[in-house]
Amino acid sequence: MAPVTDPSSLASFSKCVTKHLNLRFHVDFDSHVIKGNVALTIEALEDKFSSMILDTKDLKINKVTANGQDAKFTLGTAHSFNGSPLEITLPFELSRGQHVIIEVSYETSPQAFALQWLTPEQTAGKKHPYLFSQCQATHCRTMVPCQDTPSVKHTYYAQVSVPKELVAVMSAVRDGQEADPKDSSRTIYRFRQAVAMPSYLIAIVVGALESREIGPRTRVWSEKELVDLAAYEFAETETMLKTAEQLAGPYVWGQYDLLVLPPSFPYGAMENPCLTFASPTLLVIAHEISHSWTGNLVTNKTWEHFWLNEGLTVYLERMIAGRMFNEPFRQFKAMGGWKELQDSINTFETKSPLTNLVPDLSEVNTDEAFSLVPYEKGFALLYHLEELLGGPEVFMGFIKSYIQMFAYSSVTTDDWKNYLYTYFKDKVDILNKVDWNGWMHTPGMPPVKPQYDTTLADACIALCKRWIKASKADLSSFSAADLQKLSSHQVIEFLALLLPEDPIPLSHVKRMQEVYNLNAVKNSEIRFRWLRVCVRAKWEEAVPLAFQMATEQGRMKFTRPLFRELYNFDKYREQTVSTFLKCRSAMHSVTATLVAKDLKEDEGFLDTVSSQDNSRGVRWAVRIEQRKQKLAVIRWAEQVWPGVPSDSLGDDRMYESTAAEDRHTMLFDRRDIDVGSGCGSSCSI
Length: 685
Ligand SMILES: [Zn+2]
Known about the structure:
By secondary structure, the protein is α+β, with helices and mostly antiparallel strands. It is built from 21 helices and 26 strands.
């Protein structure tokens, strides 16, 4: 077997692999730090094994031992996004097959990418702080030194000490709690994950949590203010689990709990084993349940094969929807996915290699590569194969067999494809006609558009066409009855169909509001698309609503496109950037990084931004330039208001830094820029 390489990891996992982690966390809300100790059970894969590398990022390493003896360690130079390699030299040699326990005591940084620390004000209860993690794809290394690659799977055990008024939960089965023997104001919670899984699925939440039982193997967790609503919303979980088991085989993880996070969570949900994280805007969890098989049980070997996690999960999710509702509904969702794919590809540069189904991620930050492409291009390929190979029942037979074949392991696209050829050995001539290179290694839309049943979509298409073709005189023909015939899924589709078209005229958007009252709709999938339609039509009345939705929740699926639409509305570009800057510190770091990119921070988005400090009568602007790897503030004193001597502004000064966080500090920290301080009185940074 060829050695595995993973461009997103610096760990030496071809020399040794992790079998188990024993974690001890002391969660410190005062300093926003986890004081951690991890004992890794490592198996040597080669003789004369005496050194290894673990992934870390922004960790402070205090001590390393090997089987209890002190071991030498050094932290290598930090890579721009992959972190710093922790090189460990053992005081002895192992031969292939032997195990060693490497114990590392360390501290996380307050800026750890995996961790978001919320103040009491950012929670529903307003009384207690809150912590949650998000390790996918490559952030576990900011929380635990480990082999942070999905090609390695291990079990884990954890003991977590937290203030006793708070509760800890993890992506594992709960194993009791006790008073912390070292500190009577704290409680230790214990967890056991007995199924081997990749590091990116380690997850922790600490907060004033409560739970309700909603099924024989399911509890829903959240702050107490939200828990009854959450129990109601996810009442169908057990039915979905049973449907998924019929399709994909037994559920191996024991418990299936759900945790509803505060609104700043950047993803709709995260499929952490035993404990799916869900955002309050999530409506269905068929997707997360499906990950219990595709993703968590059979895992992509590196993030270049992410479509094996996501494309297969979308396929399974839609199959569950088809079983629970009907086949036309599955077809309807599939067709909607094709449009989402088009929309997603349009946000990339033409021919961006990141729109390949199997992208090359050498020197690519996985957060920046994240898009719907692996989900929907992956699904489209599977649906295309389903059409070619004999329909849904036949193809689902293959998926179930693939899951059994590769359960508990990590796979590449070649592993998947080879098994496809083995399973359909009497249909090889059909498979040979598939344009594999076009599907997998070519940017843009797939080479073939599958055929979908349009029964449910036709009504949405017809309504969309009516609006696009309508003249001013036709506007009176629209009425509330148009939408009453449609399900909420069809309303979402109707609005989605308007998005790739030219913006509809302002008169039309106003009329749409008059007859459909979409401003009042709470369903976030509808609201999100409606607000995009409004901003595109340059309807200023909708702008505050779009700002509100972009900032009051942090789900990237909604926040990023809304910020992009607002940025594209010339009149509000400056406000878009300043709103982002105000909210940045309260945003999840992944969301903040990507929105900054969307708003062209790299090209100096602050060119257009000015701010004023009325108390000093100074209006200033700064400009950021990227110079090689460095960023520089090259101009800052812009204009002096009447009555203020211009020499009080001083000379141009230059600040240089390599880190994005520093860029933020150098702009807004008063110690660095003392004139035109920060972003004025309205700013909360
Ligand atoms: Zn997923």
